[in-house]
Inverse folding.
């Protein structure tokens, strides 16, 4: 029904912003990701929106990026996850890292998000993995460099054995391989470890 709203930021606090559009103040529920990007009160903003309708209320949800809204819409289809929990997940992890965690079945990374237990993390992965994989493979994102690189796969496995989560390991290895500076397994592991330690 509503695709986006533009206007002046009239107020902002944890979990919520108010956007003034032609004298009407629209209250939008937001993640900490979006809250950090709207700027100071008085700034001109554009937020992508979703209207949530329940038996007792209508609520607007706002997103700084279309990718965040798309992930939110996926999350609220998971059994047991409503808009509030979906925003909590998006507040605990940026969209790309979240997609990577889902694709790699990384329950450990998802469970680190405040209020998200192992069972909820597993449910998110089971119900969304195929859909997120399709989005990732179709978008050209470099989330799966390790999948096509034997050295990358081995390096990620070594990092996981050293205590990194699967998501962090793959993210670090992908960055090193994409940079093109490392040629051997040892170089990939060394540079990936350095990037994690920073």
């Amino acid at each position: 029904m509503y695709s986006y709203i533009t206007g002046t930021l009239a107020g902002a606090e944890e979990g919520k912003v108010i956007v003034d559009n032609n004298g009407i103040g629209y209250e939008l529920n937001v993640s900490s990701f979006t809250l950090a990007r709207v700027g100071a009160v008085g700034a001109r903003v554009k937020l992508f929106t979703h209207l949530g309708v329940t038996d007792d209320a209508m609520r607007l949800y706002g997103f700084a990026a279309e990718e965040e809204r798309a992930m939110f819409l996926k999350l609220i289809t998971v059994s047991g996850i409503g808009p509030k929990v979906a925003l909590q997940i998006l507040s605990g992890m940026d969209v790309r890292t979240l997609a990577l965690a889902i694709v790699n079945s990384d329950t450990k990374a998802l469970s680190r998000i405040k209020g998200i237990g192992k069972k909820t993390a597993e449910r998110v992965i089971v119900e969304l993995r195929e859909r997120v994989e399709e989005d990732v493979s179709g978008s050209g994102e470099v989330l799966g460099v390790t999948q096509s690189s034997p050295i990358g796969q081995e390096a990620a496995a070594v990092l996981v054995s050293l205590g990194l989560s699967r998501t962090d390991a793959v993210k670090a290895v992908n960055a090193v391989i994409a940079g093109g500076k490392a040629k051997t397994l040892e170089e990939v592991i060394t540079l990936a470890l350095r990037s994690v330690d920073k």
The longest helix spans residues 118-139. Confidence is low (pLDDT under 50) at residues 139-146. The two ends are 44 Å apart (CA to CA). The chain is about 50% helix and 20% strand.
